[in-house]
Predict the structure.
Amino acid sequence: MAVRILVGAAWGDEGKGKIVDFLSERADIVVRFQGGANAGHTVQIGDQEYILHLIPVGILRQDKACVIGNGTVIDPEALMEEIEMLGSHGIDVEGRLFISHNAHVIMPYHKLIDRVGEEQLQEEERIGTTGRGIGPAYADKAARKGIRIGDLHDRSVLREKLQRNIDEANRILDAIYQAETLDADRIIEEYMAFADRIGPFVTNTSEYLNDAIDADKEILFEGSQGTLLDVDHGTYPYVTSSNTTTGAACMGAGVGPTRIDEVIGVAKAYTTRVGNGPFPTEFPSRWGDEFRRMAGEFGATTGRPRRCGWFDAMVVRYAVMVNGIDRLALARLDTLDTLQTLRLCVGYRLNGEVVPHLPNDANVLRRCEPVYEEMEGWDRPTGHIRTWDGLPKEAQAYIERISELVKAKVDLVSVGSHRDATIFM
Ligand code: IMP
């Protein structure tokens, strides 16, 4: 049985939800290891669309266990909403959802500081965060001020830590942002109530996972966001506040690297990005608007329009390198069905010179000009196709050229949002 990590190979929204759902059929346990409710993993089962922000997509299959690991940041309010949403569809999480006692808790002051912090910046300085409190929660974790899930169970510790943090947050909100301050007593009561509801799910998930690996269980790590949003390897500062790349799975779940068997990357057949920051292959605005409407590219978490562009082999090759991707899944091939000509970015030029590797410095990347290769489109529907041989030869050529450019074999292609709209080579 294998232990696999799945990560996004661009700026998030690569279609990981659908691919995790497809691959989780074979898994025993699906694990989230970083990020929080900033993610939006969309899965279509029959007529029902599910959007999961925190709980691993594996929860949609009744016989799977799911772990939210120590590397995540958990908003209890969002977690409860998600558990209720699943319950309303007859999906019970009891006995199969395990939450790390070491994961950090997102507090109302994190969300408030995230939002007012962004609002007070000049338009061009904004990161365009999801406003879910992710950055401030990870900042508190690094500053050793964070409140962990395990703290929720010791009422006197929780009260003391919360009181101190809320007092500090109120001073910041008042003095720096001139924003409304928070009512400490109300928050303390609210989070004590969450503690009771979350209690049954909390455990030492590192031990749980290592025992499962010893017992030869099949495990799938579900990355969120994407490589270029990694706080170290992404286009800093236009990134999220966690490590989104493969190494984070070990750190964020308490599993050693020697226990990992395979790394799967997911990329879209084109590129999208939400939020600010450089995006070399972005479509010019009018054509971009048209493409976005045709592709339905709006954020699953915030509903924001996603910026769209051509497939960028420089980005995905970089993701293959920093993640050690063994196999690549290519999502949303069918979205390109109506295009007569396709462009693939095969390199960049900076001041007239060829750039050999992706510069992850946002200021340098901003100045890079993409070099394109044109390919013939297939100009016919692919959504019904289920085999490699059934794909139009132009689509096969497009996929093969991508494999060659990014130095990873594409062995799974998604041609629609439904589970069965998948070609597995
Ligand atoms: P944060 O993670 O909310 O702090 O947002 C930081 C940046 O990451 C912003 O550009 C967001 O739009 C982006 N981001 C965060 N989560 C996702 C995601 O799941 N998909 C795509 N972009 C994301």
About this structure: The pocket of inosinic acid is lined by residues 12-13, 38-40, 127-130, 132, 134-135, 224-225, 229, 238, 240-241, 274-275 (CB under 6 Å). Residues 266-424 form a domain with the Adenylosuccinate Synthetase; Chain A, domain 3 fold (CATH 3.90.170.10).
